[in-house]
Amino acid sequence: QVQLVESGGGLVQAGGSLRLSCAASSRTYSTYAMGWFRQVPGKEREFVAGISWSGGSTHVTDSVKGRFTISRDNSRNTLYLQMNSLKPEDTAVYYCAADVSTRGLPDPYGMDYWGKGTLVTVSS
Description:
Layout: E1 3-7, E2 10-13, E3 18-25, E4 33-39, E5 46-51, E6 58-60, E7 68-73, E8 78-83, E9 92-99, E10 113-114, E11 118-123
Parallel strand pairs: 2-11
Antiparallel strand pairs: 1-3, 3-8, 4-5, 4-9, 5-6, 7-8, 9-10, 9-11
């Protein structure tokens, strides 16, 4: 069982930055892939970024490329999402998730565990 708790959301002006964190309660955190997703009410959840078990491989969706960076600190069992140059369209609830079946990049359709989310609001 993996428990994930996100933090770091809040209200920020357009052009600003936020760093989201996701703390994992798992002894095997360093052995599987992780990802960030976001969801706007009334819309489907969207994949944002993924990272391999070691952090050596990462992938971000095109809409946030060059602005968002995913990273992880396996010594702290923590996943991060650095968000820069935020836009109003980035407003959403952000979720972290674990794909315990792979050490490579996560399968966005095969995530096994989810956090409860943290709200990011970007004002114009």
